Amino acid sequence: MSLIRRYPSDTYSGDGEASAWVRRADEPPEITYRNGGTCEYLARGERTEGRFGLYRWTFGDTETGPDPHFHRALSEQFYVLSGQVRLFDGREWVTATSGDFLYVPEGGVHGFRGSDHASMLLMFAPGAPREDYFETLARGEEMTEEQRAEFMVRHDTYWV
Question: pLDDT tens across 46-73, in order?
Fold first, then answer.
């Protein structure tokens, strides 16, 4: 017996409308980190009605990226556009190159590291407000251990 997959229920009942939007490639990144890395907000969760958030992440000269962690409410996807990015798949660090993809379901331990202006697409589903997380880290705000722990929990990030 084969499993028949069905489309989700309709969320639109009209006859079609002009509702698409474009983010041009020449728009400046929303965030530039101290090491020269950037983050571009391609599709914020608020623009996608919470369905997903999509970001173009470009690393700076030196290697950066989070240690292994997981999210309780978000899945996270990585698609390498250029260069080499080290991805932690919950078991080991693997070197990913252009065209490689990593899917991390809720609860999946993962991490990433990159340098030399490697770039990737980073997607979260559903589309949580990750912008505050990225922007706060970019500002390098001083936090006590207690403040940092609360910040991480507020942004669904649990270190392992």
Answer: 999 999 999 999 999 999 999 999 999 9
CATH at 66: 2.60.120.10
Question: CA 110: distance to chain centroid?
Answer: 12
Prediction pTM value: 0.92
**100 belongs to a structural domain:** yes
Q: How many domains does the chain have?
A: 1
Question: Is 8 part of a structural domain of the chain?
Answer: no
Q: Rounded to whole angstroms, how far apart are CA atoms 77 and 4?
A: 25
Q: Which residues of 16-52 are buried (b: 16+ CB within 10 A; e: fewer)?
A: eeeeeeeeeeeeeebbebeeebbbbbbbbbebeeeeb
Task: Residue 67: count other Cβ atoms within 10 Å of its Cβ.
Answer: 10
Domain range for 69 is: 31-159
Q: Terminal CA-to-CA distance of the chain, rounded, Å? A: 41
